[in-house]
Amino acid sequence: MTDLVYLIPLFPLIGFLINGLGWRTIPKSIGGIIGSLAVLASFAVSLGIFFEVRSGVSKTVTLFDFIETGSLHIPLAFQVDSLSALFLLIITGIGFLIHVYSTSYMHDDEGMVKYFAYLNLFVFSMLLLVLGANYLVMFIGWEGVGLCSYLLIGFWFKNRDYTNAAKKAFVMNRIGDLGFLVGMLLILYHFGTLTYSDFFGQLQNGNAPVSNSTYNWIAICLFIGAMGKSAQIPLYTWLPDAMAGPTPVSALIHAATMVTAGIYMIARSNALYNLAPAALHLVAWIGCATALLAATIAIKQYDIKKVLAYSTVSQLGFMFMALGMGAYTTAVFHVMTHAFFKALLFLGSGSVIHAMGGEQDIRKMGGLGKHMKITQITFLIGCLAIAGIPGFSGFFSKDEILGSTFAGNKAIYVLGLIGAMMTAFYMFRLYTLTFTGTFRGTHEQEHHLHESPAAITIPLIILAILSVVGGYVGLPAVISEHHMLGSFLSSSVTNLGLHEMEHSTEWMLLGISTVVAIVFSIAGFAANRKPSFAPNTGLSKVLENKWYVDELYDSIIVRPITAFSNILDRFVEKMAIDGLVNGIGKTVRWGGDRTRLLQTGQVGFYIFMMVIGMTVLFAISFFWIG
Amino acid sequence: MLTLLIFVPLIAGIFSFLVKGNGAKGLALASSLATLALSAYVAFETGNGPLGFSMPWIPQLGTQFSLQADGMSAMLCLLTGIVMPVVIIANWNKEVERPWSFYGLMLLSQAGITGVFLAYDALLFYFFWELALIPVYFLCSRWGGERRIAVTFKFFVYTFLGSLMMLAGLIYLATLTPGADSYSWANITRAGASLSPENQSWLFWLIFIAFAIKMPIFPFHTWQPDTYEQSPTPVTIILSALMVKMGMFAVVRWLLPVVPSGVAFWTDTVIVLSVIGIVYASLLAIVQTDLKRLVAYSSIAHMGLMCAAAFAHSEVGMHGLMVQMFNHGINITGMWLIVSMVENRWGTRDMSKLGGMATSAPQMSIALLIIAFANIALPLTNGFIGEFMLFNGIFQGASAFSMTYMVVAGVGIILGAVYTLNMVQKTAFGNTVPMQVAKDMTLNESVAMALIVVLVIFLGVYPKPLLELTSGISGAILP
Question: Which value does ipTM take for this structure?
């Protein structure tokens, strides 16, 4: 089975080629079916691989030599082990549900076949990213998902704001990519390989002739790449803008899969990060700061998708906090549960937007629960999961993150707890404003309110079930000695020695988390039951305007660069350099006029004669001698 | 075989002047397809070792008619062989005035360019260098844009001054080894390497300026955006895809091995200039509104990266340079085809007046997207392999500042995304009404474009053939 691993990316690639080449002739429904089946086929193979990996298989499958030159030898090879197998399941499983959802959601769009082609291309790239057996293949997937993200954010390309958002996403990711590239070159320079097994093997032998600071630098460079892809400070502002894309895209790319690539990268490089304490420290603090900053912004957003987008940024921050503690499996656990409930929430918001006829402003919603029961209930389950109410999946993974920070860094633990409070609060604010109370939109909108068709509700139901039960693969140690996910991943991921906690401490932490989640969920509900939307002032206004970070970037980076470029163009290029050149030219001309040796405009003629002369000379000698 | 590669376009070019009417176009196509087949054969044959040809030419001057095709020459001849028919096919439906002399000059230029890549004798090299230049000079000044006369004059004086200095340098080197073959590559390199480091140091600039202008390297580049803008697009393609490679090629063949101590002495200077050029040209590209000028600056940035790697003295970098010379030629040809299709349809290259192409001409827009992403070296397009190897080469270079060079050059990949995506957004996206009415690609345009796109993706996914063709070069050049 593991030898067939190449089939997993191959199916979506074929789907992309069929839909991509036939985007004008293939009927919409057929295009949707082709796209969905391609991902389903990959899911089936991934399941097979998963069961084999569970029984302890781990191997590398090489397809062909990609770059082969002297000292550089980089094959296109796939790594099959527990970490990649888990991500394969998440990507193809949730990917398939979202494809099915899209067949209904995008049905009225004229570009539907093109959409499915892009979506399959995305799945292909994402699979390449997690399957790669070396950093270069990961990088290929990494850039590939960036391309698809660009194409799908700007899917409705007639709207200038949307294409601006697409461009912003790509460029910000490129800044991170430079870090990734430098990291790769450093690894190549010091270790002579990009293949995981070689590289990590050298690290574990401990006889690599490299200093500690080098480990830290490599780890930090890779992390810069992760900052871009996983939307961490300072490279996070593209993700909220990326909501310009169709909502299923936000669910798949900008919540469940692509944005977790940074977490995958660091978890994959665990052997490196275990040797790079300073880098881990940076990861933890960046994650913590991002988790808090994004959560504060989410509290004051009015666009249903923007709230979820900032929530995603914040949750990604939580994952980086765990990574920073060296608790890689914990971060991966949260990747998984987050993929379930955040995909659910985005798809739920899509169902709402669908019913509202494209309206995304929650100030104009309210009381939707009466009209769309399934959407309401599944959305509520998503909220309970992300808020960390006991029994739901988010509770287990978030508690594990907080537990790891408690053991590792108390300050981060406290800040993380504050982040968890805000999470519960803004999610129930969102739920309450959307689904309860009375409808605040127009009569016409109210008339149109309806539950979505089965292709939309069935994925919602499945994701809701996963959001409930998904946490039981990683029960806390006080409840169960056996952490299923932890032991599954242990063959490919080595956590930095987690401190064993007293059972009493652990019970205390669980208790605090539970109280916080319940209290702030209720607070979020209570505070928004009778909403009034007076214009925000003071801090609220700052939060509504996202701390003015976009404006800040614009005025300290974008505008200065443009202004500087203009100065270069007008003064340096046209006046200084070209002026000097023309000056020399004029001097020569002037001298030429004086001496009458050169006549302006005739130079070419002389040269031409010279070459003709040489040709003739050549021809004569050619025939004469030959 | 090698002589045929030069003589087919040379003779076809001369004959072309005698043909009246549009027959010249057919003749040019036939000739270019023949050279494509020949160059493919040569590339195939060099797998078994370099091909050579030599006969006496002007023994009194110490020069021979000596050609050699190793992997690098064969690769560049192949690039020439591919680009010429693509250019002719893409312009098949476009009427030019006096087609006989237009196509004749194009073919003469091709003969010169091929000669440059094959010459193994310094004087012969110089001869072809000028032979390539002069037809282009006439092409620009006759068929160019409004400001063509002034611009062409600048272009000509600029490049010609460089050539003269190079000639002086080569003559000086030849005088060191009197005899019937004092200009041969072996004698020139032996003469150069035996000079004292001080002498090599000034000789370096005497020779390098010509190549630096041709590539071009900051600050010798100002002729280029003007010339690209004012030339008719087929000529711009020859200039940017092929003639620019002459400069790069010449550095590898006629500079690095000729004055090794001079190169070692000036390495950091040249890399600094190249790296500045990358950032400088990228910044300028951001504020261009004319498509042609944007592509011109983009090309300067790419050449800067190649030049930096050429001087970094690393095996991977040198091999990457080979790969990238080919791929840059393919990509920029694709870029110009798009620009000329846009200009033919909407009569402007001003991006502020364009937009909405994705609605009216979706096929063209897909082609644009693919070429654009190849231009910013997205993996699985041909642009990536070379760029990755170049960065690797710069990073592993001999200089103490390699890391800094690499990171500053790396800023170019961010800025590259900015200006390239700006271009895509302004031409393809949006909702501009005047652009709604237009025909998508015609058959001949599709054929030319498809060839480019297939190469972009094939070599991006499976670069092995290209890597193998040029695998021996770095070992031969770096001591």
Answer: 0.92
